[in-house]
Amino acid sequence: MKQENQKNYVNALYLQSGGPTSVINASMKGVIDGFKDNSSGNLYFSLYGVDGLINDNIISLDSLDKSKLRKLEKTPGTFLGSARHRLKPFLEDDHEYLKILEVIKKYDIHLLILNGGNDSMDTGYKLNEYFKYINYPINVVGVPKTIDNDLMITDHTPGYGSASRFIVSALASIYLDNLAYRNGKINIVEVMGRDTGWLTASCVMLQTLGMEVDLVYIPESSFDENDFLVRVNDIYARKRRGMIVVSEGIKNSDGDFVLNNKATDSFNHVQLGGVGSYLANLITSKLNIKTRAVELSVLQRSYALQASNVDIEEAYTAGYIATLGKEFNVDGMVSFTREKNYSLNYSFIPFAEVANKIKYLPLKYYDEETKQIKKSFIRYIKPLLGSLKDFKYPIL
Amino acid sequence: MKQENQKNYVNALYLQSGGPTSVINASMKGVIDGFKDNSSGNLYFSLYGVDGLINDNIISLDSLDKSKLRKLEKTPGTFLGSARHRLKPFLEDDHEYLKILEVIKKYDIHLLILNGGNDSMDTGYKLNEYFKYINYPINVVGVPKTIDNDLMITDHTPGYGSASRFIVSALASIYLDNLAYRNGKINIVEVMGRDTGWLTASCVMLQTLGMEVDLVYIPESSFDENDFLVRVNDIYARKRRGMIVVSEGIKNSDGDFVLNNKATDSFNHVQLGGVGSYLANLITSKLNIKTRAVELSVLQRSYALQASNVDIEEAYTAGYIATLGKEFNVDGMVSFTREKNYSLNYSFIPFAEVANKIKYLPLKYYDEETKQIKKSFIRYIKPLLGSLKDFKYPIL
Questions:
Q1: Residue among B301, B306, B396 minimizing CB distance to A80
Q2: Structural domains in chain A plus CATH codes
Q3: Do A177 and B294 touch (CB under 8 A)?
Q4: pLDDT at A8
Q5: How many angstroms separate the CA of residue A229 from the nearest CA in chain B?
């Protein structure tokens, strides 16, 4: 922490964007602490993401009851509220940009911190370009956040470790539950992941707990129903039970979602969910095998009681470092580089390198023959999860 | 613990029966410790419940790797395997009874301990009656276990507190998740409970966390779709979000399950699941309001990472006390009586008082006007859950 007279005078504004994670509020705490340590001036918060910025729904840190901030690192949801709002390109329509500029001027903001995923980094990119275009002196900084782990460049994203840790803990519980009867079920566990299999791939950690996942399906590899049924039949004949982990966004060989559903959100994403139930029904009707579909649903991103300490710490640090954006005179997203023995380097990368882009799970981690995640993925994911010893259970 | 020469010589056999809970293995640990402290002789375990007893699938405590027993209290699932197997009345068909008797004689068992719910206590009842009928000197003792909390006489059942604690923790996470957007969703959380609303009623604890559950539906009260839709419409208009908690076994005014599904298990129970999705689809199609159905599924009974310490302790003690069945020359199920300031008394009650019977949630705890659980239920359930301070989150 700096002496008062060494602190940089700046007013900053922080907002949360996109879907909640277990640790986005840890980043908020990092922003608060980083700002207090290194800056004088006021820290403001926009409520409901960029909506608050457009509509002047702004509060200051000083107005917040301090007792509410104490547990912020371990609080799920988005404490300030969020939004999924896509700004139009400002050269086409600068209507909302002008409203934002008015608010930025009103509070004399010169550091804007957006905490979100690849859609939110699109907002960061557009605002950054706009402010440069009109020559307004403000630094725009992004703090990464997404359970999907699909941001380019950065080794991983805050939120991913905690969601994966919950998934592994849930799979371990479901695995033991399914050992109860001599004839068990085929459990199909549906995991979030519209475009990528990062979250699903975390199931490989069950190997380190002495448990087996029989089949894994991810959006990066095409899904074939007949092949699937042959495999399930064989697994059940052999073991009288089984565990299948599947991403919500798996696609067939034509590139269509296995479960088709027409509802879309404002980013034109198809709203999914339920492919696990679909596959369970398929197995029961075609093979007459008992199944259970379990959809981990929003608990993956919100069960902060099982958040990874490593993830909390990194999310906090990313927020802390973002507050130095003015001092370093930098724009862009805080990014992680992994060094030897899992020490992380933090740097800033241009928004253009992450906005709207998707980092897929490399297929080197997926075994197309066995439909399983390869052991080599353990080395990537293990350090993100914290200790799993609490769910290393004895098995008879 | 007794001196060796004060110990009662007896061989005992313990088995697990019915669905898993987070704490049934804590009862097993109690049985092991109670037996070691107070008895000489051998302790045996039947694998896969009464199936192991019929088919001589028996192991001894001495044959078990001791390191596996160390974490038993916190291990979900049924460590020994379980079964749902209904014995026929022995006067009609004593085929399986004769096979069981052979195994009991082979291992010279004079104390039989069954750990399970009301179906398992039916097995205890029938075996107890059979052994009396043939005048075979054995005590048959039950250790209660069911997340459903639907056993007669006993104040509550081991497993219920932990399942409820997980439900409350999950609801708190889901509640915060749903605060993210200015326009939230109607979340419908489906909780286990084929016949009774005990588990669902645990949602009343959200009041103590500063959170609201808007509507609650339990099997003990009939469900009306039109009334439901009117209420949901009103809630969404007022709050732009909502939380509804519903038992899987809710019924309409004709007494039929709201979600009809013809599959049945060997006890002729209808296999349920999915009523939350059904209601969510109903809301979306009739009211055009965004919904999300979350089925807590098997995590309710298997997410031992969130087990209640009080529940673990009581499950352990119930197992421990069961090992005294021979010494006290008693048959029947260990039962809890609640005294002032929540001290528990443990006693034995006849199997006939619990076998096949169902204890419903008293309707004094349900407000038919508001479709909510009354505050008075907090006094009943709170002591079973352990401290909830970890999920008392700050809300802006």
A1: B396
A2: 4-157+307-353 (3.40.50.450), 160-303+360-391 (3.40.50.460)
A3: no
A4: 87
A5: 21
